[in-house]
Write a structure and sequence with these properties.
single chain; alpha/beta; Rossmann fold; Alpha-Beta Plaits; 3 domains; six-stranded mixed beta sheet; 11 helices
């Protein structure tokens, strides 16, 4: 009988248990596993996930397998661990460069290498081409496509009312996922104001697409987002109301994650997304590709010290919003940045005396 361990911040413990998986953190998995396989997309967070440091934490004689994406496993580190005998073996189907030229794994011992069998072989590409051609024929003959990836068509009136809110909804989902840092069991979506009078299912799908797109190797779209969320044990509760308060429309997400209640709200201003709420704080800020959020004690000099740390690292601030509960109490600062924040710089900011917590939110590009 085999014990299966898993690491996934977007799956609940209960949902993992249904499939016979014990959910743990990465450190525990590395310490306990006899074989490690990766099943994640290649993003900024997962590139080099299984590198020299992670491999050193594995048991002597453990196995590493990568059939997900090249770059998640550090090929040079795996090759070195195989030669030293620390790893008992490796199975690699995907490579940092494809086709791989001069990979250090080519002459490493106890290694099985395959040429990205699902995509990069002549047989796979022919099979995909034939499948696409068959579906085109089906559609032209009036039959339904078996694997539609586009969203259902909206009528002209609904498209005009709902369409502009889909980018906002996706941004809110992406923001919520990164701010939550963990599995969300129940997500409440409230659509208020103008769009509430129409079918808001596309807004729900857009939220889920943003929430899940970095959590799965599957391509997330408006058609399959609901199914992928259900498979991960995520329940979405939808509310619609004509009353958006002082806004013409308002989209709000709320839910429990890691013992915290999280609320993120947004609207459109001149057709462009704006963040207007984060937990109990009221905001008015355009989302940016990279945002740094600090929860800190409102003390003199804190903002200047944070700015100085970022400036010393050549990280440029393009916009800032500060919200606080009361003078010299807790405060929330959101910075829109022109540059990404290296992990070491984020740690330096968090080391400031007044800092309580910090998040780097990446809303565009490679997350």
């Amino acid at each position: 009988e085999m014990t299966i361990l898993g690491v996934d911040p977007y799956v609940t413990t209960e949902q993992a248990a249904i499939h016979g998986v014990e959910l743990v953190d990465l450190e525990a998995l590395l310490a306990r596993a006899d074989a490690v396989t990766v099943h994640v997309p290649l993003t900024r967070a997962t590139r080099g996930l299984i590198g020299a440091a992670a491999i050193a934490k594995l048991k002597p004689g453990a196995f590493v397998l990568n059939v997900a994406r090249g770059g998640i496993v550090d090929e040079a580190a795996v090759a070195e661990a195989l030669r030293s005998g620390h790893l008992g073996g490796a199975g690699i189907d995907v490579f940092e460069a494809e086709p791989p030229a001069g990979s250090p794994l080519f002459d490493a011992p106890n290694t099985v290498l395959t040429p990205h069998l699902g995509a990069s072989t002549a047989e796979a590409q022919v099979a995909v081409a034939e499948e696409v051609a068959d579906q085109v024929i089906d559609v032209l003959a009036g039959r339904s496509a078996r694997y539609a990836v586009n969203a259902p068509l909206l009528g002209p009136e609904a498209a005009q009312a709902i369409g502009p809110y889909l980018p906002l909804a996706e941004i809110l989902g992406r923001f919520f996922a990164q701010f939550a840092r963990g599995g969300v069991k129940t997500l409440t979506l409230e659509v208020a104001g103008e769009p509430a009078g129409h079918d808001t299912a596309p807004i729900t799908a857009a939220v889920l697409r943003g929430l899940l797109e970095t959590a799965t190797t599957e391509r997330v779209n408006l058609v399959n987002a609901g199914l992928l969320a259900k498979a991960r044990g995520i329940t979405v509760v939808e509310h619609r109301t004509p009353d958006a308060g002082s806004f013409s429309a308002l989209v709000t997400l709320s839910g429990e994650a890691d013992g915290r209640h999280i609320v993120v709200g947004g609207t459109l201003a001149n057709g462009e997304p704006r963040l207007v709420r984060l937990n109990e704080y009221r905001l008015d800020m355009a989302p940016a590709d990279v945002m740094l959020i600090t929860h800190h004690r409102d003390r003199p000099g804190t903002i200047g010290r944070i700015g100085g740390t970022l400036g010393a690292a050549d990280v440029n601030i393009s916009a800032m919003h500060l919200a606080r509960s009361a003078p010299r109490q807790d405060a929330l600062m959101i910075l829109a940045l022109d540059d990404d924040v290296p992990e070491e710089v984020a740690r330096q900011v968090l080391d400031h005396e007044a800092l309580i917590d910090l998040w780097t939110i990446r809303l565009g590009g490679d997350r």
